[in-house]
Amino acid sequence: MKILGENGLSGIVKRFIDLIFIGGIGIVLGLPFILRWYMDWLAGSTSELYAFLLPFLYVTGILALILVNELRKIFKTLNRMDPFRIDNVRSFKLMSVCCFVISCLYLVKIFFFNSFLTIILMMVFIIGGFFLLIIAEVFRQAVIVKEENDLTI
Amino acid sequence: MGIRINLDVMMAKRKIGLTELAGKVDITMANLSILKNNKARAIRFSTLEALCEALGCQPGDILEYVPGDDSAGSVEDGNGEEVDKA
């Protein structure tokens, strides 16, 4: 199976990420209503919880949208068969920053409204942030090697 | 890098154009242009051999060492800093 390219696996994943991005925008825009509906459905929720969760989900949601948008940009270059670009290094770094900020926010949430899922998500975003930071450095070195190769006649 | 490519001088001596030389050496015009304008970072032995064959010259006729000339072939990293390849 073809991995890279518009008709390859990366093309399919890119379309899937596009859907996630559009869905994410919809959820962030309708967050007050969705959260109210969810909390009405959930027994035992308080207005205090709503007041905490709304800004929390707004900030983490926007950060997640930035993260997904950067991922879309990376997949665009993958589909063009030109992934070793300095823009992708910047994208990976920005994504790692987003991951760290999200994990910090989840850390704050542990102290106020703890749940097992919160701890897992915080761990996932911390590991994801480190992973992305390492990938960014790998890509930076790859860009240098590619540039060197391109200028070897 | 203090190595300068004198390809244009040799081409003028042999009265050969960029397109014709690119065809003879079997490299793209873009790459030959990079080489001619001293923008190349390195040159393969196979390219050098083909150039010498096409121009009927020695590598020394194309390459020249100029002490203290740092203008050619530098590679920059993403932060705009020159990368030391050593």
Core attributes:
heterodimer; A: 153 residues; mainly alpha; 5 helices; elongated; B: 86 residues; two-stranded antiparallel ribbon; 45% helix; globular; disordered C terminus
Describe the protein.
The complex is a heterodimer of chains A (153) and B (86). Chain A has 153 residues and is mainly α. The longest helix of chain A has 35 residues. In chain A, 16% of the residues are buried. With 86 residues, chain B is mostly helical. Chain B is built from 5 helices and 2 strands; from the N terminus they run E-H-H-H-H-H-E. The chains are: A mainly alpha (153), B mainly alpha (86). At the A-B interface, helix 4 and helix 5 of A face helix 3 of B.
Could you give a short description of this structure?
The complex is a heterodimer of chains A (153) and B (86). Chain A has 153 residues and is mostly helical. Chain A has helices spanning 9-29, 31-41, 47-79, 86-112, 116-150.
Main sheet makeup of chain A: none
Shape, principal axes of CA atoms of chain A:
elongated
- Taken as a percent bin, the fraction of beta residues of chain A is under 5%
Measured by residues with Cβ under 8 Å of the partner chain's Cβ, the largest interface is:
A-B, 11 and 19 residues
How many beta-strand elements of chain A?
Answer: 0
N-to-C series of helices and strands of chain A: HHHHH
Find the count of extended strands of chain B (DSSP E, 2+ residues). Answer: 2
- Give the terminus-to-terminus CA distance of chain B: 12 Å
Strand count, sense and barrel status of the largest sheet of chain B are: 2 strands, antiparallel
Radius of gyration of chain A: 19 Å
Oligomer: heterodimer
Structural class of chain B: mainly alpha
Low-confidence stretches of chain B: 75-86
- Helix percent of chain A reads over 70%
Through-space gap between termini of chain A: 32 Å
- If helices are DSSP runs of H or I spanning 4 or more residues, what is the number of helices of chain A? 5
Mean of residue pLDDT values of chain B? 82
